[in-house]
Amino acid sequence: LRNEKKDSKPWPNEVLGILLAGSGLLLLLSLLSFSAHDPSIFQFMGGSGDTAESGSAPKNWIGPVGANVAYIVLALFGAAAYLLALTLIWMGLAKLILDARAPWYTWAGCGVFILSAAALLSVQSLFFTGWAQNSGIQGGVGGWLGYWTGTRCLEALLNKPGAILVLACVY
Length: 171
Known about the structure:
Blueprint: H1 11-32, H2 63-77, H3 81-97, H4 104-123, H5 131-135, H6 143-170
Helix pairs in contact: 1-2, 1-3, 2-6, 3-4, 4-6
């Protein structure tokens, strides 16, 4: 990951590092302050705005954009959305501080890491059992991607123990 040769213009790596870390921090803050009662563009889908008062200000720390982004990411990845935010922060800091050059397979590994975490959360039934209902997120604890990857695909093919074993190895 470390850049062996010094470029004459190191700023593109620094700019990308700031953008990645900043977007990861914004995502993390929007996830931490997510409220199902915030007004959202997803009200018509039965999403986060079911009980939202029209015209009320969102409680999300990043505002209405943060409320909508948090709902989308939580609906897609479930509780693994926090790993997405932390991965963005980590990769941004690696680019910014360590001058890291992450090849495509590093990014692919990050994607597999987050998707397998979402699928594992969707398949298992020990942790976060009431999280999705309490947070007002549709798609379950692993989100829609975790549900389709873990429950509908792997669990259907390998049953629950086999799917958990495969996903734990991939994770």
